[in-house]
Write a structure and sequence with these properties.
There is one protein chain. With 209 residues, the protein is mostly helical. The protein has one domain. It has eight helices and no strands. The chain has helices at 2-5, 21-44, 51-57, 63-96, 106-131, 134-151, 164-167, 176-208. Helix 5 packs parallel to helix 8.
C-alpha cells in the first residue's frame, strides 16, 4: 500500500539520495492550495461588506486587526494539518528506503518546504488585497503556482522556481538552492509589508469617507 502512495524512485538512476517528491507535492501543493482557497474565501468575503460594521460587531477593533485575527486562526489550523501530514509522510519515506539510500536531512527538507509555504501565502495575500476579488485571485495563483510550478514542474522558471528543489534538485550548483530560497524569503517579507500597508490605506480611505 505505501508504495502506491509514494513511488520508490525519486532521483536519477544510481543516485542514493532520495528526493521526497511526494512529501513536497502533498504538503506544499495540494494542502497549501486548499489553505489558499480558504484564505481567499474567508478574507475575500469581507470586501463585499462594510469593514467598519464588521469591526464593531467583534468589539470595536480596527478592521485590519480583525482580518489579521481571521488569518491567524486559519494559519493555526493549517499549521497543525501541515505538521501532521509532513511527519507522517516523512516517516513513511524513512520506512520505505533501502539500506543504500538516504533522505536529505530533515532540516533541509523543512527549510525548502516552509520557505515555499511562506512565499506562496505572502503572494496570495498580496494578490487578494490588490485585486479585492476572489475569482481573480484564485485564477492568478492557480495559473502561476498550481499549473506552472506544480503540474508543469517549473517548465518556465526551472531552477529559479519556488518548486525547483523538487523537479530540478540535481541541476543546482553547491549552495544554489539555498540562494534561491533566501531570495524568495526576502520577496515574502516585502510582500507581507506591502500587504499590510495596502490594507491600512484602503481601510483609512473608507473611514475618512
Amino acid at each position: 500500500m505505501p508504495d502506491k502512495f509514494i513511488p520508490s524512485y525519486n532521483g536519477p538512476a544510481g543516485v542514493g539520495n532520495i528526493i521526497p517528491q511526494n512529501l513536497y507535492v502533498y504538503c506544499d501543493v495540494y494542502l497549501l492550495m486548499l489553505f489558499i482557497i480558504l484564505i481567499f474565501f474567508f478574507l475575500g468575503s469581507d470586501f463585499n461588506n462594510s469593514m467598519e460594521e464588521i469591526a464593531l460587531v467583534v468589539g470595536g477593533s480596527k478592521p485590519n486587526k480583525f482580518m489579521i485575527r481571521k488569518l491567524g486562526s486559519i494559519l493555526i489550523m493549517y499549521t497543525i494539518l501541515y505538521l501532521i501530514s509532513f511527519f507522517n509522510i516523512y516517516f513513511l519515506y524513512k520506512g520505505m528506503i533501502r539500506a543504500n539510500e538516504t533522505l536529505p536531512p530533515i532540516n533541509e527538507i523543512l527549510l525548502y518546504s516552509i520557505t515555499t509555504n511562506i512565499f506562496v501565502i505572502s503572494l496570495s495575500i498580496f494578490i487578494l488585497l490588490i485585486s479585492r476579488d476572489i475569482a481573480v485571485s484564485t485564477c492568478l495563483i492557480t495559473a502561476y503556482y498550481l499549473i506552472e510550478e506544480g503540474l508543469w514542474r517549473c517548465k518556465i522558471t526551472k531552477t529559479n522556481g519556488i518548486l525547483g528543489h523538487i523537479y530540478s534538485y540535481y541541476d543546482y550548483e553547491k549552495g544554489g538552492i539555498l540562494k534561491v530560497k533566501l531570495i524568495y524569503m526576502l520577496i515574502s517579507i516585502i510582500l507581507l509589508f506591502l500587504s499590510y500597508k495596502i490594507s491600512q490605506r484602503k481601510i483609512n480611505f473608507r473611514i475618512r469617507h
